[in-house]
Design a protein that fits this description.
The protein is an alpha/beta fold. Helix content is 29%, strand content 17%.
Length: 251
């Protein structure tokens, strides 16, 4: 089993002691890359080094990493470029922060410097997000699961605690639960920050019973009506502004 936490994002700033998690045995499907022929290679100048963009950044006194349009560090994952931030003492426990849907590593711009005072912190842009490559492919959970495990193995190079928010929480949990033999040496804990996602195995879906045609048609009509009303509500400018202000608050 794996011990984990479900907390809100501000909890990351309360106490770094909360990040110490126990890790025992995993029981889940084996970790196998979605593309067996892919090869992952490190960028010669990036892993294990602070990017030039952050070379003058003092995480002991500064509270927010700057936005760098060209990215921070680059990891070559197969044919894809993965942007990531690295900060902190390499002799300290490793921590990997995984962002949610529509976000990037910069989502953790305030958390990274604080956590780097006690941990060796990494945060990457998931494939298809931020400043990482955005190839045309089927973005399914296995893609980000494989990215996470390969990143820990090839870039971090030591046992890591994974922290995920929203979709990143699902990715962190999926990576941590995939293959005991593979992940036990890679992941020693999993922290979920308002996690979201598909928490059931699609391969174990129970066959549905045959539905009555009239009932099915009625349910379909109701669903379409509700979806239409929902769309009409969510597309209102005031509602869009409200949602954006929740995600990107302004003073």
């Amino acid at each position: 089993m794996i011990s984990m936490m479900q907390v809100s994002t501000p909890a990351l700033l309360l106490s770094t002691a909360t990040l110490l998690l126990a890790f025992n045995d995993f029981t889940s499907e084996a970790y196998t890359p979605i593309n067996p022929s892919k090869t992952s290679t490190k960028s010669p100048s990036s892993p294990g080094k602070t990017s030039l963009a952050l070379s003058n950044f003092d995480y002991t006194t500064q509270s927010r990493i700057p936005w760098i349009a060209e990215g921070y560090n680059n990891w070559k994952w197969g044919d894809h470029n993965i942007n990531y931030v690295e900060m902190g003492d390499k002799t300290k426990p490793a921590l990997l922060l995984i962002h949610g849907f529509g976000a990037s590593a910069y989502h953790y711009r305030y958390n990274i410097p604080v956590l780097a005072r006690d941990y060796h912190v990494y945060a990457f842009d998931m494939l298809g997000f931020g400043q990482s490559s955005k190839p045309l492919l089927d973005y399914e959970p296995n893609v980000w699961r494989d990215q996470t495990l390969d990143f820990i193995e090839e870039v971090i190079g030591k046992t890591t605690t994974v922290v995920g928010n929203s979709l990143g929480g699902f990715t962190a949990l999926y990576a941590a639960s995939s293959s005991a033999a593979k992940t036990k040496s890679l992941i020693n804990g999993c922290i979920l920050l308002n996690a979201a996602g598909r928490f059931k195995d699609p391969t174990n879906a129970v066959a549905e019973t045959e539905k009555n045609g009239i009932v099915e048609a009625l349910v379909g009509a109701i669903k379409r009506f509700v979806i239409h009303l929902s769309f009409m509500y969510t597309k209102q400018p005031a509602r869009i502004e409200q949602v954006l202000r929740q995600v990107y608050p302004v003073n």
